[in-house]
Amino acid sequence: MLYRLFLLLLTTAVGAPILANGGDASCPIIHITPQRLPDLNIPREGHAVFCAGGELVVAGGHTNGFVPTATAEYLRDGEWHQLPMTYTHDHGTALVLRSGQVLLAGGSKEEMGVGQTFGVEMYNPANHSFTGFGCLDQKRTLASAIELDSGRVLITGNWYADDVVEMFDGQKFFTLVKSVSVGRVVPYLFRTSQDDVLIVGDRDTRDHLADTIVVDRLYGEPFTVPLLQQWKPLTYNAPTTADAGFIGDETQGRYTYLMVVKNFERTREKPELKGQPAGQMAVVMVEDTVFTMLPTVCPIPMMSPLGSGPIIYDRGYIVADRQAKQAYLCGVDKDKRLYVVSIGYTKRPAPLTLYYTDPLPDCGFYVPVLTPQGNVAIIGGSSKTDYDSDNFTPTASAWLIPLGQQDDVISAANRWPVSLLWWLLAVAAVLMVGVWVIIHRRNTKAVHPAQQAECVDNREEPSEIEADNNRNEELLNHICQLIDEQQLFRNSELKVTDVAAAMGTNSRYVTDCIRACRGITFTQFVNEYRVGYVQQILRQHPDMKVFEAYTQAGFTSERSFFRIFKDVTGMTTTEWMSQFGQTGE
Q1: Which residues pair with 103 in a beta bridge?
Q2: C-alpha angle with apex 92: 87 to 93, nearest 5 degrees?
């Protein structure tokens, strides 16, 4: 009651929307001043942008005239230093590995983005060198790559050529793994538990929109997600970082990603919509094989609050800062203002903040990269002043958006001096305290002490929270009974949707129940069963090899088994087996 009264008083006094649990209000809007970095040595488009060795690096791409360049640049001491590369990798693939080195592969073969290439090289940030060392199994451009827990690298996606899935062994060789149900251009890649990968995209290799979004897997059969038939994944014709939207924790076996989705047709399919609002954008959370909409306190802003028309996000993608627990989505308007939507993804509903800059005429709207300091850098890209990309006249400009800096705070309709805002807040707070005192005195006088004691006793009746806990415990018991009796965990491709279907319920209920009762994810829940099964059969069969035991239990790789076993038991397999006099080689 008092909370609502405070919101009412504050809203009346300030005249700005108050965000409260999904209320229909605009998100806070904050003016921010970007930092102009030194210009690149040459203008670039179609290049890779990444952080390696603590430095911003751009690699390959093409320059003026749509001419590929076999050069790279790294930023140090306020200056871009140019380096020679082995190949151009114009619209190629770049992946920062856990080793700190960067894998670069493929790209356009000729000027103007024609053809594909096989070339592969490695960038070593320690000595700023590029070394060509291998050849893709399939020549490709506009592909995506992701490193698995095993150290292997999955690569898929292509442009105007066949698409397949291939694997880099982490050392030298690239081999074909499997075909895909449909070819894709720069697809999203999402790691899951058990070293699996989901492959998602809304466009085929010739840039045609897919009527039905099909999700391919590294292991297992393709499947469809009803949510993605209405909300299409947003894809970009530019080299991206597959793990940029990762918000999970590998050490806990939690693989969670954020993905931008849209509920509209692309303007290129309908020229009459050019420069006009084209539907709403939102964010989907992907965890293992479960796709759910991320609830937000307000929709993602689609129109500039400054009267500059639509905000176009088509060349941006989500980058997540796991330390700050914020994810960022970048956009631009017709006046070349940059916008950054900050998403507090750990809260439900997630709060949004819209940052905007003054017009930046020579800024290129390109894919963003997160710096080690938690800022967003936008380097190179198209120099045109409308919403289109221009491959023939890229820019050399580089900008840093310091997201820790907050300048003028405005609402979508009003700009208020800070001193006046704080004065009104103080008045509202005094009024709230006064109302609370009056109500408290009335209640104290109206209730006899004996009645107060009776009220205290009545509070011991079961609350709604307790009822929810009871329902969760009952559902969890049914889940455990099902998994125990049918030993579902032994299926290495078990998904939460399988369990939900077997129980005739919704997959979200299953994951929410497990998280509420056990404080863990569905994947962790299943892994605990698998570890317990390994322990059981090794006790019953002391001579059995560990490999045979964990394979029977549903694990697919030795590395993930040993990591998960220690996470669950607190011991290595050797330490655990020594307690029972087993060798388990």
Answers
A1: 95, 122
A2: 110
Q: What is the 3-state secondary structure (H, E, C) of 271-290?
A: HHHCCCCCCCEEEEEEECCE
What's the gap between Cα 452 and its chain centre? Answer: 51
Strand, coil or helix: 336 = coil
CA distance linking residue 67 with residue 44, whole number of Å? 10
pLDDT at 312 over 70: yes
β-sheet bridge partners, residue 339: 331, 356
pLDDT in tens, 107-159: 999 999 899 999 999 999 999 999 999 899 999 999 999 999 889 999 999 99
Strand ranges (DSSP E) for 437-493? Answer: none
CA distances from 377 to 77, 211, 330, 566 (A): 16, 34, 11, 39
Q: How many CA atoms lie within 13 A of 521 on its CB side?
A: 20
Spatial distance between the Cα atoms of 358 and 578, rounded to a whole number of angstroms: 66
At 93-103, the pLDDT tens digits run 999 999 999 99
Give the long-range contacts of residues 158-164, CB within 8 A, separation 24 or more. Answer: 158/116, 158/183, 158/184, 158/185, 158/205, 159/91, 159/113, 159/116, 159/185, 159/205, 160/116, 160/205, 160/206, 161/116, 161/205, 162/138, 162/205, 163/138, 163/205, 164/137, 164/138
- According to DSSP, the residues that pair with 198 across neighbouring strands are 190, 217
Rounded (5°) CA angle 563-565-566:
70
Task: Answer yes or no: are the C-beta atoms of 287 and 280 closer than 8 Å.
Answer: no
C-alpha to C-alpha distance for 469 and 138, rounded to whole angstroms: 53
Q: How far is CA 540 from CA 27, 188, 533, 569, in A?
A: 60, 44, 11, 19
pLDDT, residue 2, reads 41
Q: Which residue has the higher pLDDT, 297 or 458?
A: 297
